[in-house]
Amino acid sequence: xxxxxxxxxxxxxxxxxxxxxxxxxxxxxxxxxxxxxDADEQSPHVREADAAVRVGPAPAAESYLDIDAVIAAARTSxxxxxxxxxxxxxxxxxxxxxxxxxxxxxxxxxxxxLQIMGDKARAREHVTRYGVPVVPGFDATGLSDVEIAEEAxxxxxxxxxxxxxxxxxxGMEVVADASALTAALASARxxxxxxxxxxxxxxxxxxxxxxxxxxQVFGDEHGTVLALGERECTLQRRHQKVIxxxxxxxxxxxxxxxxxxxAVRAAESVSYVGAGTVEFLIDADEPDEVFFIEMNTRLQVExxxxxxVTGLDLVALQLRVAAGGRLDPVPRVHGHAVEARIYAExxxxxxxxxxxxxxxxxxxxxxxxxxxxxxxxEVTGFYDPMIAKVIALAADRVTALRRLDEALSRTVVLxxxxxxxxxxxxCRNERxxxxxxxxxxxxxxxxxxxxxxxxxxxxxxxxxxxxxxxTVSDAGAVWTALTERAAADVAFLTDDDALVESESxxxxxxxTALDADGAVWVAxxxxxxxxxxxxxxxxxxxxxxxxxxxxxxxxxxxRAPMPGSVVAVHVADGEHVAAGTPLLxxxxxxxxxxxxxxxxxxxxLLVAVGDQVRCDQPxxxxxxxxHDGAAEEIR
Length: 635
What we know:
eight-stranded antiparallel β-sheet; disordered C terminus; 18 helices; five-stranded parallel β-sheet
């Protein structure tokens, strides 16, 4: 590779992908420039870059998505090129055009390729002319809801509704029948407008047992387009990938050849330059057919599994192609790689996002870890909840899954809830191990039981409390109360408000940490719990309060399940609603969650669209009398 690619590259992203790109730039001797929002001023990617430029406040729309601010940062820092990572502006025609106007190299495909492939409807129409098979569907742009319903009936239900712009599963809605279509269209448009600034939609027939397979393609300016193998991305929830692997599990050789050839045809149809991913669906019950669904004109989150089995550095390859270099022949694939995405979320509580300060991050050794966080990092609700990726490589698939499971058991994140334990469950699932995959597999495992702390967790938490002092926490009154009790008299509340007693015994050597509220975080084998210590008096008060609540009717408040923004109100103030009626929707970390009526009654709204809410904040009251809610609000 040439020693004269670029002298300075600006990385227009954040988190683990920014760190990943900066790492390669450092290895190549290229000066790196980070950009950051106010929420990310202390983030690792800012410190690791050679220079950093602020691009705005915490909301992405005012910082990482601000094209003018990104271009200004590039000019100020003297960057010759911009690497957009994935997400944010990575598929932005506007950024590519602004780069061209400013004489800055956009490390990505041409504006024309972005325009064609960045719009799902246009891409479908385009690739069919080049013999690439597509799932039956239609572009809903410009159609009324009535016209959309008529077209949907023609295709047949179930149907998948998805934003025409963007990707990552954001805004996708599965519609089982015509009665649910109107609500799904409204929700998909809201998310699409918020995430991509474009609420146009595409509707496709839903394949009932789909496998999601994607092909890594690369093109150069000299007309070469290569397929670097496929990735299995079938293990996903709500269209968000969870575990990915390369190569795919048990794909027939004939299907693989057809898949790779179709991907190359799709990329060649737009004279593609750079890294791209062509995504397909395959029916798990009829794996001889492949259907194009979209092309992502950027690097993918899951690119490390391709790197592991090919030995390539795809970021270095992006830089090489962007500087006009030629591609070498495709290397052979060796072994099997599996990647797990660690999200800041609580699977046992419906995968609600989790925010807070990371009290301890201890990644496993012996495997690849691409992380956005470190000890002391703040996880906010402004951005995607993925905080790290763990990637295991082995000679075969079963061994790779076993190594990934073992690595996850040694991964410690304290201070925010994570899905690590759930990822371990997937690694050990019989269907996963056998390769019997479809995109609905995860849903068959839900809902997940709320775990209880093990005896080892409790003894470790107990030891942590007893060894602590007010000097290591600003919890104040909590610690005053704790130091007054007998050494063996320790009990805890879980975050689900369950009381657990700790027995005396030899403390286990488990990772523990205290948060600012005096709660103990403890990890064991990939499972993490937050335990709030209680003294004897607090336990007695709690028992009395529990007995009193048992005789009281259902709580009238509908509460925010997480911190976020109110994006929709579905009922009118004073309207009579039935139990389970969606009252409003709250968005955080690019996900929408409804707040439902706790029982029949009259609704009294306490928030409006655009309001920011805290976790557990009352956002509506549903009362049996229209006057009760007003009285509560005044009080």
